């Protein structure tokens, strides 16, 4: 007797679904046990969360004038960090892209270094540079520059590797040198992507720079850490609201600029 072939895939699919679900549950429960996740403690501390929210519902608006200057410093950190990283990323991307006929061995070494850079979180970089250069915005700027360099380079050289080879071949056949090929055959095809990635990095850096200050890398994060340690949730609310407005405004402007570029 020939089995009904239309029902077999459904049984297999259900078996796979329940097997996957069971494995996920085992992983989640095991991870929760190992990391001492206590859901009962979460429920019992809801009252404390309610107290904090109640305190934050009455922001200390007089604190706005205090945090405006560090807010400007935070934005400056993001601008400088993004600019330094993006400037370095441009020539590196052109060199390490596989279709740019660079030295293969040296290019592979650079790509390996870039992969290492991208695996290091900016918070860890900032902590290291705070230890090296001391508390202040310089450590945050260097951390953001390295993060921006890694991110923009990765995205940009991948865009370069997908360009149309036609203009490059035409320039080669007309005797153009390497710089002319870059100037007229490569950059016009990818320059809009480059600015898009720079703006994307800037958006991320604005958010990151507020957190970097929390570990002493300058900016408004220092005031956030101070307000939390003093249990001044009314001031914490002011800082969070200001950061929220600034991030929203920058996201809006950045999205509009990207729409014009692409």
Q: Can you describe this structure?
A:
Helix 4 runs parallel beside helix 7, helix 6 crosses helix 7 and helix 7 (137-160) crosses helix 9. It is built from eleven helices and no strands. The model has no long low-confidence stretch (mean pLDDT 85). With 262 residues, it is mainly alpha-helical.
Structural class: mainly alpha
Order of helices and strands: HHHHHHHHHHH
Described by the principal axes of the CA atoms, the overall outline is globular
Helix count from the secondary structure assignment:
11
Overall residue-averaged pLDDT value: 85
What does the main sheet amount to? none
Model regions low in confidence, pLDDT < 50 over at least 5 residues: none
Task: Assign a percent range to the helix content.
Answer: over 70%
**Distance between the first and last residues' Cα:** 61 Å
Question: In oligomeric terms, what are we looking at?
Answer: single chain
Number of strands: 0
| Rounded radius of gyration (Å) | 25 Å
Estimated share of beta-strand residues: under 5%
